[in-house]
Q: What sequence folds into this?
């Protein structure tokens, strides 16, 4: 989460957050595709290829072996309006905030323009659809990524709706209305889709029909993606609590209070939940009881979703410091600074083959060896 979002008052973060997302849209120019809103797309690794959304509106594929750019596809909106100041209208590139999802040959990505895209990794042929396309209202931005399972694409939007789409045609199969904006990527387990909302609720939906199975109410808006482990859904909220909820009926198991908001996606490993918080700490919480085992002090807030490499949890602070945390015997002594990028990091991390991949807010892609901390910049231009 951007540093400016974490103000001390209740109202100020929301004004700054929406102000940023709106202001960048106003700076589209008269030449080329204009200035692009800067998204914070995370990285996905699939069969030796990295996929991410660049900050100039491209879906990028990078070879993990040699770090070379394999291909990129620019996402554009068609020209609209009169162009103003005598300028001819030009197509505008699309800001990308969600992390790509790969299913077979198709790369799925969501756009700030309210569209979901499916791009063939082999041919670069693409298909897209507006989530809201009733011609009665403007499509709302999609901030999070999508989930793909059992022949459907699941997406949440700022319009407060959850959508179930066909994976091939992208035709709408169902939609479900929450009470407010959705900024988190849905999670799917079996025949259930789990999604969190600004309306302070976690929803469990039937994956085939979109009908609600149950809901769980918190005291704060929720932007953290949920995860499912065994019979429990875990997620954090902006009320400073981290929750464990029964998957069967939405009944509470436990909750844990931290210093500030939870934004990043948690990780469960060997019976311990690891949850990064904007108070600058990563909490190791017993998954069964909710009791804190240990806390790691990063010295700065963390909003980027971490990754596991073996038994090491790799986490990034917003200031760009990359740490490895030993999960075998969790303790403060098991914390090691791997690298200091010197660049802001808000995007979800990815890992493969002992390497960690990080997309910085300067639109650079880094590979870091999880053991040695050796750093390499990969080519996305």
A:
């Amino acid at each position: 989460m951007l540093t400016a979002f974490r103000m001390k008052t209740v109202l100020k973060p929301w004004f700054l957050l929406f102000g940023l997302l709106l202001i960048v849209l106003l700076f589209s120019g008269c030449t080329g595709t204009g200035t692009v809103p800067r998204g914070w797309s995370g990285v996905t690794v699939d069969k030796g290829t990295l996929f991410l959304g660049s900050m100039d509106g491209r879906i990028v594929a990078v070879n993990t072996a040699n770090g070379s750019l394999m291909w990129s596809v620019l996402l554009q909106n068609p020209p609209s309006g009169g162009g103003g100041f005598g300028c001819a209208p030009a197509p505008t590139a699309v800001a990308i905030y969600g992390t790509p999802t790969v299913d077979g040959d198709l790369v799925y990505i969501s756009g700030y323009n309210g569209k979901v895209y499916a791009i063939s990794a082999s041919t670069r042929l693409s298909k897209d659809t507006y989530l809201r396309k009733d011609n009665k209202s403007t499509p709302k931005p999609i901030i999070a990524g999508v989930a793909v399972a059992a022949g459907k694409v699941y997406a949440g939007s700022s319009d407060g709706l959850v959508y179930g789409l066909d994976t091939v045609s992208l035709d709408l199969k169902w939609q479900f209305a929450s009470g407010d904006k959705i900024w988190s990527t849905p999670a799917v387990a079996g025949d259930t889709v789990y999604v969190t909302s600004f309306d302070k609720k976690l929803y469990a939906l039937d994956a085939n029909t979109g009908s609600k199975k149950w809901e769980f109410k918190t005291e704060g808006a929720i932007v953290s993606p949920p995860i499912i482990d065994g019979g429990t859904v875990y997620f954090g909220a902006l009320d400073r609590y981290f929750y464990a909820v029964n998957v069967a009926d939405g009944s509470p198991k436990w909750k844990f209070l931290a210093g500030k908001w939870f934004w990043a996606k948690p990780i469960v490993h060997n019976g311990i939940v690891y949850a990064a918080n904007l108070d600058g700490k990563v909490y190791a919480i017993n998954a069964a009881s909710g009791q804190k085992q240990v806390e790691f002090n990063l010295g700065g807030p963390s909003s980027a979703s971490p990754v596991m490499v073996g038994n090491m949890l790799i986490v990034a602070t917003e200031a760009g410091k990359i740490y490895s945390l030993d999960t075998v015997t969790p303790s403060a002594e098991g914390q090691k600074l791997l690298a200091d990028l010197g660049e802001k990091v808000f995007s979800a991390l990815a890992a493969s083959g002992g390497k960690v991949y990080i997309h910085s807010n300067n639109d650079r892609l880094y590979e870091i060896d999880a053991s040695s901390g050796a750093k390499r910049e990969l080519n996305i231009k």
